Amino acid sequence: MVNKDQLADLFASHPFHIQEIYRLVIQPHSTLREFKTECAGFLFSIRGEARLNVNGKNYDLQPGSVMHVTPECQLALQVISQSEYEYHSLFYHLNCDKQSDCDTVFKLETGSNPRIIEILTMLHQNVHTPGGMGKLRVKELFMRILYQMLMGCNQKESSPHERVIEEAIAYIRGQYMIPLTLQDLAELFDMNPKSFSYFFHKYTGLHPIDYVIQYRMERALEILKAGNIPIRDVAMTVGYPNQLYFSRLFKKKFGVPPSAYTAK
């Protein structure tokens, strides 16, 4: 596990230089072809979900995930969400002779933090600003990102509610085909419905039942794309005995009815 205080001390105590920062948006289910890193860097996941392969090992990334890579890493990325995947990659050179966490590949989870996105955008706009003041501004922005990132990790790790919501998400993904109500989910995790809904929305950006519907619709789309399966069977598979209700939800989510896929 990465020692976050030592990582902070490393950048606070040694000279570093920001080499480059990139922003990429990749379409759903697309693949970013394999490439090799020239220097160390951080990859910040902004929206969508992806699977990053680093030297043969897979890491699942979601909003709030931060991946650190080292020089000469072989990277390949595949978007696994139904929506676009956006990330910022920030490459740097740290002038430090001793062995440290910066010489390793690791993943951090910062949780949702709009401030990091805001500062990344500012850094992207300023990275090529000439002169000493420009360089100072870039370093100042990077240190703010690093601080927000490490503080976010500490808060996430210290939050029992975050762990409960992660367990709830895993439960929903495993049991989405059965009836799920807010009351049932809250009782399952020993919380009252109001508190459960509040913390679920805080950490995911969605209310529990909205998340259930979204996940069911994504699974339904995968099933429909897999073959010519009757809509009523797809509806039942993802937890909707009422085919008409399922079709309304599907069209609301994707803009077209499920029949648009069965007709293909």
TrEMBL record:
<dbReference type="InterPro" id="IPR037923">
    <property type="entry name" value="HTH-like"/>
</dbReference>
<dbReference type="InterPro" id="IPR014710">
    <property type="entry name" value="RmlC-like_jellyroll"/>
</dbReference>
<feature type="domain" description="HTH araC/xylS-type">
    <location>
        <begin position="166"/>
        <end position="264"/>
    </location>
</feature>
<dbReference type="InterPro" id="IPR009057">
    <property type="entry name" value="Homeodomain-like_sf"/>
</dbReference>
<dbReference type="Pfam" id="PF12833">
    <property type="entry name" value="HTH_18"/>
</dbReference>
<keyword id="KW-0804">Transcription</keyword>
<dbReference type="InterPro" id="IPR018062">
    <property type="entry name" value="HTH_AraC-typ_CS"/>
</dbReference>
<keyword id="KW-0805">Transcription regulation</keyword>
<dbReference type="GO" id="GO:0080090">
    <property type="term" value="P:regulation of primary metabolic process"/>
</dbReference>
<dbReference type="InterPro" id="IPR018060">
    <property type="entry name" value="HTH_AraC"/>
</dbReference>
<dbReference type="InterPro" id="IPR020449">
    <property type="entry name" value="Tscrpt_reg_AraC-type_HTH"/>
</dbReference>
<keyword id="KW-0238">DNA-binding</keyword>
<dbReference type="GO" id="GO:0003677">
    <property type="term" value="F:DNA binding"/>
</dbReference>
<protein>
    <submittedName>
        <fullName>AraC family transcriptional regulator</fullName>
    </submittedName>
</protein>
